[in-house]
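Q: Hi! First time doing this. I have a protein sequence and I read that you can turn it into a structure. Is that right? Here it is:
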Amino acid sequence: MNDKNQFDALIARARSDQAPNVDVAGRVIAILSGEQTRFEPASDRPLIWLAAFSSAVAASVAVAAVLVYQTWSDPLYELSQAVSWVVQ
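A: Yes, that's right. Below is the predicted 3D structure, encoded as structure tokens:
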């Protein structure tokens, strides 16, 4: 029962907590109206190039993986076809 009392006290304290008064409407309207330009740092460019390079490498690895899978699974396919022919 002590846990319930502690929980109720915690709920009462949380309900009495006040949020800070912050007014961001002026800044948001200025950004939306275009008066204030958004700052985009130039440090994103290396990340963009890294993402492009990673995508190219991933695509080439995926193509190579499909080709290797098809090459290695072909003998198993032929074996399964022979076994299915014998079973019939």
